[in-house]
Amino acid sequence: MRNREVVALHPAAGDPEPSPIGFGMPRAQNDAGRILRPAVRRGWLEGAGGAARGQDAFVEVGWDRALDLAAGELARVKREHGNASIYGGSYGWGSAGRFHHPQGLLHRFLNCHGGYTASVNSYSCAAMEVILPHVIGGGSNAIYTSAPYWDEIAEHTELIVAFGGLALKNTQINSGGLARHVARSAQHAAREAGVDFVNVSPVRGDIDDEQAARWIAPRPNTDVALMMGLAHSMLAAGTHDRGFLRECCEGWDELEAYLMGARDGLRRDAAWAAGVCDVDAAVIDALAAEMTSRRTLVTVSWSLQRADHGEQPFWMGVALAAMTGSMGRPGGGFGSGYGAVHSVGVQPDRHRITALPQGQNRVTVRTPVARIADLLLEPGREIDYDGQRITFPDVRLVYWCGGNPFHHHQDLNRLARAWRRPETVIVHESWWNPVARFADIVFPAATALERNDLAAGWADSWISAMHRAVEPPGEARTDYETLCALAERLGVLEAFSEGRDADEWVRHFYDTTRTDLAEKGVELPAFEEFWEAGRVELPTPPLRRALDFAALRADPAAAPLPTPSGRIELASATIAGFGYDDCPGHPAWLEPAEWLGSDLARRFPLHLISNQPATRLHSQYDNGSYSQDSKVRGREPIRLHPEDARARGISDGDVVRVFNDRGACLAGAVLDPNLRRSVVQLSTGAWWDPVSPGDPSALDRHGNPNVLTLDKGTSRLAQGPIARTALVELERYDDPLPAVEAYAPPELLAHLP
User: Fold this and answer.
1) How confident is the model at residue 458, as a pLDDT?
2) Catalytic residue annotation
3) pLDDT, tens only, 583-621
4) Are residues 342 and 487 in the same domain?
């Protein structure tokens, strides 16, 4: 630290591969876009409604006035419309801190105020979270403790077939924090032990080069057809595991009939799959033979279910694993999430750490998280979701604290139009990023470097002290301080704070965790000793598999799964009973809304892969030096095959315009032969920088792929996002380059003119 500013971050001791994203944080800490004072949008103060959100100037005001305005709006909307008209945002990944977790703080506060309309599921894996409980039972996370871990894989697995790959760049991150990055070494140990890898992805880099993986590159969104071709080849050869399918699975006869074309005359064989996927039928036949002759693990990445009919790759992936003969055997079967976040496959779990109680939400409405634009645009509309009918409430106030919907939602121009409908939008933010610019009342928020906290990540064995490195700049406060001030104005301060300040909560979290673990024979040092040392390691708890496929294989009657049949449901009477034409009662190949085999590909002949970035956590710290150094002429890089570039007169380093009927953005061309032809890859997270927000003909100057993606649910079952279902075209941009304004503050006024 120098002159009360953070100038560098250093890795935690003993971390073998620290994430370089953190090294970019100091540059962002006090950049020009930092929010230093409470601000209120000019048009909202003037009573002009939400039409100018995203383009308006802001008036900087004192804390008391900003708090009075926000508390007044919360009270008014509750009084006039009810708590269901308050939407509590703060969607995920807000902070590594255990206490200063924006989502938990905001939701507790809103529950103290009477409740709010909440969301259900995640943008990361909504379709998976809904379909797998029907197929294998358990909760949405049950697969993570039920699939093989890397040490087991290294000992027993012979072949991993990774649909969507195992991208190591994603293992930099871990929900809640991480003390030691070991995912890369775990994958490499498996390779060194003799495990063979097959990368089924249009992007060769979705598996690390050191894994020496074979590469099969199907057309995007056709993995289900490829799986069915593999399954049919197993059937035709008679190598499928008949005993397991008969004894441990429900609905095999129905799926077999579909694969064989018994009802519709269409055999889903290798030749058919080759026509859909553009993968040679001989390759399919050979891989099918290998999968049934070796101990095989079938993995399906989270990315595959972020596509139209995204439930199907997971359902068919489970079916394919069941056919191989490896399901329920050490190192074999089905898994997901490897290469999605760090801890999947690395460590089973950790001991329970105290979390902030949320209280009771007296509003029972929960809407699918990816349907937020529909929710705001169409109050009163009914939608299907997992056998339920949900009616959208009339949302009048949106409160967002942590997270950036203008990063993770699809069709941002449509979201901008929807976002202008509520009467009031309240946001806590540290920088003038898009969600702050689209707010009415903005509270300046302290960052993780500016507050004390604990880090205890998902399945991480360490509790780490997060010491405040520097005071917040300007008038910024922690989210907790802001919410306490609002709670006091609304008469719920005692219920919200329980009389504790933030540092007292941090100590309370540690002390109660220490007491709980002592009852289990785990001794932790006193708080003062821990705080001085900086971290403490916990022993790994015993492995408890949520779903025991080995026990199922051994005795299906004695060890049933938590499904209606007690077995793996390769056909589901429950789902069939919903009557959804976009998600029938067994795995099915359903043509995506957009794909390279569709007529639309004549106009937009490139499939867009909008994957997770390597240089930031989603959109967090896009203004940091590590992300900034990756830009091409100030724009997010877009990778395309050299032949596709040559056909369009594009050279490496050119700025290109990427477009379809939903929008357009600029990006910097990077030529990459490790992509399938007709596929382009533009990572998410570049801060949206539209010339005119909400206008489909307007240009995003910076390279956010979600101006191009389709805002449609995966199906009526899960209603998840389908960001990977998008066709585009691109061309060299020869006009004068507009300046990137993503990181600059809006016009800030001292008072209304």
Assistant:
1) 83
2) 91, 93
3) 999 999 999 999 999 999 999 999 999 999 999 999 999
4) no
**Is the pLDDT at 695 greater than 80, yes or no?**
no
Any idea what the CATH number is for the domain that residue 141 is in? 3.40.228.10
- Residue 631: CA atoms inside 13 Å, Cβ hemisphere, count? 20
Strand partners for 431? 34
Which residue is associated with the tokens 């993570």? 144
Report pLDDT for 730.
98
DSSP string computed for 633-651? TTB-EEEE-HHHHHHTT--
Rounded distance between C-alpha atoms, residue 572 and residue 741, angstroms: 51
Residues 53 and 67 in one domain: yes
Amino acid sitting at position 112: C
At residue 637 the predicted structure's pLDDT band, cuts being 50, 70 and 90, is very high
**CA-to-CA separations, 234 to 174, 239, 278, 284, 320, in angstroms, rounded:** 37, 5, 20, 10, 9
| Pairing of β 727-732 and β 397-401 | unpaired
DSSP reduced 3-state for 303: helix
**Cα-Cα-Cα-Cα dihedral of 418, 423, 428, 431, to 10°?**
60
Mark out the alpha helices in 50-119 (DSSP H runs). 63-81, 102-112
- 194 and 102 belong to one structural domain: no
The residue written with tokens 């596709």 in the block is: 644
* One-letter-per-residue 3-state SS of 27-77: HHHCCCCECCCCEEEHHHHCCCCCCCCCCCCEEECCHHHHHHHHHHHHHHH
Does residue 660 sit within a domain? yes
Q: Which domain holds residue 322?
A: 126-346+547-577
196 in the same domain as 93: no
Residue 23 CA, chain-centre distance (Å), reads 23
CA-CA distance, 47 to 470, in Å (whole number)?
38
Per-residue DSSP letter, 329 = S
Does residue 422 lie within any of the structural domains? yes
Residues whose CB is less than 8 angstroms from the CB of residue 218 and which lie 6 or more positions away in sequence, other chains included: 200, 202, 225, 226, 277, 278, 279
CATH number assigned to the domain comprising residue 645:
2.40.40.20
Q: In what order do the strands lie in the sheet with 462-466?
A: 453-455, 462-466, 535-537
Q: Determine, yes or no, domain membership for 589.
A: no
* Predicted structure pTM score: 0.97
Tokens 């022993």 locate to 539
User: Of the given ranges (99-103, 346-350, 437-441, 672-676), which has the lowest mean pLDDT?
Assistant: 346-350
d(CA 237, CA 202): 28
**How high is the pLDDT of residue 1?**
61
What are residue 607's phi and psi, to 5 degrees?
-90, 130
| pLDDT at residue 94, as a whole number | 65
Residue 439 one-letter amino acid: A
- What is the Cβ-side half-sphere exposure of residue 523, based on CA atoms within 13 angstroms? 2
> How many angstroms separate the Cα of 518 from the Cα of each of 81, 458, 524, 751?
48, 21, 8, 56
In this structure, are residues 284 and 272 in contact, taking their beta carbons and an 8 Å threshold? no
Euclidean distance between CA atoms 148 and 34, whole angstroms: 44
∠ CA 206-208-213, rounded to 5°: 85
Which DSSP string corresponds to 713-749?
Answer: -S-TTT----TT--EEEEEE--SPPPPP-TTS---EE
The CA-atom distances, in angstroms, between 270 and each of 217, 273, 548, 560 are 15, 5, 32, 34
CA-CA distance, 733 to 674, in Å (whole number)?
A: 24
- 114 and 185: one domain? no
Parallel, antiparallel, or unpaired: how do β-strands 39-41 and 441-444 relate? antiparallel
Look up residue 112 and give its two tokens.
Answer: 């103290």
> Total domain count for the chain?
3
Q: Residues 613, 698: one domain?
A: yes
Same domain, residue pair 617 and 706: yes
Cβ atoms of 255 and 569 closer than 8 Å = no
Cβ pair 36, 473 in contact under 8 A: yes
Quick one: 138 and 279 in the same domain? yes
Q: Give the CATH number, domain containing residue 446.
A: 3.40.50.740
Three-class secondary structure of residue 629 per DSSP: coil
Please count the other Cβ atoms lying within 10 Å of the Cβ belonging to residue 639. 22
- Does residue 513 lie in a domain region? no
Tally the C-alpha atoms within 13 A of residue 322's C-alpha that lie toward its C-beta. 30
Are residues 709 and 608 in contact, defined by beta-carbon separation less than 8 angstroms?
yes
